[in-house]
Amino acid sequence: MAKSTVPPHRLSPASKAMVRKVLAFIRKHDNFLVSGHVRSDGDALGSQLAFHFLLKKLGKKSHVVCDHGALPDYRFLPGSDTVGAGPEDLKKGYSAVFTFDSGSWERLERISAALPRKELTVVNVDHHASNERFGDVNWVDPTFSACGEMVWELVKAAGVKPDKNIATCVYTTIVTDTGRFSFSNTTTETHLNAAELLQHGVRPGEIHAALFRQKTKEQLAFLAEVLRRIRLTDDGKVGWIVISKELVEKTGFPPGDTQEYIDQVKSIKGVRVAILLKETDEPGKVKVSWRTDAGIDGIVLASKYGGGGHPRASGATFRGTIEEAEKVIVDETVAFVAGAST
Fold it and tell me: 13-211: what fold?
């Protein structure tokens, strides 16, 4: 029997060059703000915290602030108790800003709005193909399954000793953004990185338990209510749910990361596109997410409303009422799926 060998890591020449460039930039500055998109999910927050720990190992000042701070689902992450939640938590004297997993500057919402953009150097690190390249330095590579993997490349190239804090944060980014290694963005590199992280103290069972086995009765009651409200087109190819302020008030439960709910819709046999529409606290503003089958590019659906993401997972903001959003978005999606099927 031939001896099996572990495949070597493959990093594009462009990303190798960007790793060197970003590390050189870090060494020239001392005081960093680290942020990510509003209501940072597992990839965004995990990336921010892993990078924060890297900066600390390099002897730099680092401060993590993202709009709404660390959501309850991710407060098991090391360092999450130090994350600022709004403009009031910003400090003075930042020499640079690093953003992670954010397709645009505006995705930082209240944080970006409160910063003097022209006075700051922004480094934009992201794996979304639709990224607007809004930084003064842009490292955007859609071949990574999670933004946290890009941080992991920085850690390995920086000459520091990885520890369990960094490894736990990066592993969480991978688990959440690959749907527990089930999405189409899961690659050989994904598994190689996961294997490396296990060598630095990661305990997969503990992370999976923290992410997926800590539901409260209130969360389950809210999920049950959401499941009852799933709607399907007559042919069953498009499914959607609406999370309105009325639903939140009725249940008394504010949903955090809503990926679980849209994944439930996408899990229905025959559904090619799942949609989640969530009414925000800001009047006339509805968050929309799409999950699609291969051959249906969600970025196209989201780009009409200034959104983006990945071909299989995208999002945008609709301006209008929740009722208007449901009608317009569902109709547009149905037409798009019909066009993709011809």
Answer: inorganic pyrophosphatase (n-terminal core) (3.90.1640)
